[in-house]
């Protein structure tokens, strides 16, 4: 999850299975790292010797540098969908729902987020916790914060990304202190996202909840806190209980150009369903005509697919900005829900 640029990474479900390949980097000998340690001491009252001990053992993660340069969201929808909407993932989602029924029911009641969407987020992110990451979070964030790759990007973008990951490293150390974790022990993705729901540290500090009431927010040793935290994340970002998420659409030749591969981030530019209908867009699912939406055009297996993304779809993209990710979550949620309720 950049906080407004990167959310808990949907790509992590693919790359968490990568095995870390590391190299000793002697980070504490570098001036930029020393400045970071001094900042943690001055700003947050961390003990300098303790920070030095933590960072002196950091190993540069080569596979993290490689993976960050090739996100799965760069694939067309027809290929991206096939990664996540599979019989195995659907069946595993039904199993996860049954195993965590009471937690999911309570989360749905307290936060207003349907169980199937909580299940689908966790299913897309980490295959229900199976692929939560093999990287030490401390290693991954330090690597990307101080050695972000320059290949296929600009220096400006690299500097921006390094600032982001250094900020996440700061948040991670604060989180570890607050939750009484040893930062050297926690594992996550190559990008530093953590646990079953793959929150980055800033999102963990802002949105994670102690759903089992044991006094600590823990994504590594139970499913309770991840379930409650995903639901809380959606609620805070404006999930509307009972509201539609997305509708398939059909277009004529004139209205085809209205569709975009990207979701309009400025919702003031969204049009009402009625407006789209007047432009020749046919709405395939029952949606109130006053609902505002953004028309997506995605490369499907049989040609272009058109979708009218609604408010709750936008909320899913607060978790990961890719519309491919959000549509995969939606379709997995519906497939899991259908099979769960059919049993």
Give your account of this protein's structure.
- With 343 residues, the protein is an alpha+beta fold.
- 48% of the residues lie in helices and 10% in strands.
- The protein has 15 helices and nine strands.
- It has helices at residues 12-15, 31-44, 48-56, 62-67, 77-84, 87-99, 101-111, 115-126, 137-146, 155-179, 201-207, 224-236, 273-278, 311-316, 323-342, and strands at residues 22-24, 59-61, 135-136, 187-188, 246-250, 271-272, 282-283, 292-300, 303-309.
- The strands form three sheets. A five-stranded antiparallel beta sheet has the order 6-8-9-5-7. Strands 1-2 form a two-stranded antiparallel sheet.
- Helix 6 (87-99) crosses helix 8, helix 8 (115-126) packs across helix 15 and helix 10 (155-179) packs across helix 11.
- It is globular and about 65 Å long.
- The two termini are 34 Å apart.
- Residues 1-17 have low confidence and may be disordered.
């Amino acid at each position: 999850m950049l906080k407004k640029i990167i959310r808990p990474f949907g790509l992590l479900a693919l790359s968490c299975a990568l095995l870390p390949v590391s190299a000793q980097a002697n980070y504490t000998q570098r001036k930029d790292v020393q400045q970071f340690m001094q900042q943690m001491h001055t700003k947050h009252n961390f003990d300098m010797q303790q920070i030095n001990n933590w960072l002196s053992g950091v190993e540069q993660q080569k596979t993290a540098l490689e993976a960050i340069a090739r996100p799965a969201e760069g694939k067309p929808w027809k290929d991206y969908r096939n990664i996540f909407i599979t019989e195995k993932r659907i069946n595993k989602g039904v199993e996860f729902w049954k195993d965590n029924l009471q937690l999911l029911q309570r989360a749905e009641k307290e936060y207003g987020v349907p169980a199937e969407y909580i299940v689908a987020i966790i299913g897309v992110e980490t295959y229900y916790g199976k692929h939560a990451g093999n990287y030490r979070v401390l290693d991954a964030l330090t690597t990307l914060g101080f050695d972000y790759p320059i290949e296929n990007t600009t220096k400006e973008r690299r500097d921006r990304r390094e600032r982001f990951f250094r900020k996440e490293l700061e948040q991670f150390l604060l989180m570890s202190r607050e939750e009484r974790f040893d930062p050297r022990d926690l594992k996550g993705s190559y990008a530093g996202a953590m646990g079953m729901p793959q929150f980055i540290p800033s999102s963990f500090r802002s949105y994670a909840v102690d759903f089992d009431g044991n006094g600590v927010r823990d994504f590594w040793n139970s499913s309770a806190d991840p379930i409650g935290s995903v639901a809380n994340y959606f609620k805070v970002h404006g999930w509307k209980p009972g509201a539609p998420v997305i509708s398939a659409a059909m277009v004529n030749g004139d209205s085809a150009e209205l569709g975009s591969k990207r979701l309009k981030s400025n919702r003031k530019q969204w049009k009402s369903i009625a407006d789209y209908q007047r432009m020749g867009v046919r709405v395939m699912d029952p949606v109130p005509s006053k609902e505002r939406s953004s028309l997506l055009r995605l490369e499907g297996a049989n040609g272009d697919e058109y979708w009218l993304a609604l408010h709750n779809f936008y909320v899913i993209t607060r978790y990961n900005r890719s519309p491919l990710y959000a549509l995969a979550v939606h379709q997995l949620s519906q497939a899991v829900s259908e099979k769960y309720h059919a049993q």
